[in-house]
Structure formats: C-alpha cells, structure tokens
Write a structure and sequence with these properties.
Elements lengths: L1 H15 L7 E2 L1 H11 L10 H11 L7 E2 H15 L5
Organism: Oncorhynchus mykiss
Protein name: EF-hand domain-containing protein
GO cellular component, one term: perinuclear region of cytoplasm
C-alpha cells in the first residue's frame, strides 16, 4: 500500500505542476489526469460537462481547483466503487 500511496502523491504533483503549482489541480490539469490515468474508472472523461460535474462534486471549498485532500475524495469513491463497497 505504501507504494500505491507514493504513486498517487507523485502523479498528483506531476499533473498539478504542469501550470507551475504542484499544490492544486486546475480544471484542465484534472481533466488531463482523469483522461490519462483513470480512463476505465471515469467514463466520458473527454466530455467537459462530465469533468465539471465531477470536479464540482469534490471541490469542497469551491475555489475551482482541487487540493490533494479533495482529490483524495475521488480516489476513495473510485476505490469504493471498484471494490464493490458502494451499491
């Protein structure tokens, strides 16, 4: 599990850092991450409306960006769904 956490943190920082700040994901960075890293877990990631709805659902402070804790909410949701813990 430690290596999985390491990968999640490094991927977040890599995608977040594409615009200069590795602390938050902009909408475009988030869409790029979802399209390339989660193509089988997030359907229609090319659709801007899908990305907007997904981002809005986890952007707790409504600042238009995702910090790591907000991003972690998505990872938790996807893991729950993948593991069959959510019906």
């Amino acid at each position: 599990m430690e290596s999985a956490i390491g990968v999640l943190v490094s991927q977040f920082k890599a995608f977040a850092g594409s615009d200069g700040s590795s602390d938050t994901l902009s909408r475009d960075e988030f869409q790029n991450l979802v399209k390339t890293q989660l193509p089988n877990f997030v359907k229609n990631a090319d659709d801007p409306a899908v990305i907007d709805r997904l981002m809005d659902s986890i952007d707790e402070n409504n600042d238009g960006e995702l910090n790591f804790l907000e991003f972690w909410q998505l990872i938790g949701r996807l893991a729950n769904q993948h593991g069959g813990f959510i019906q």
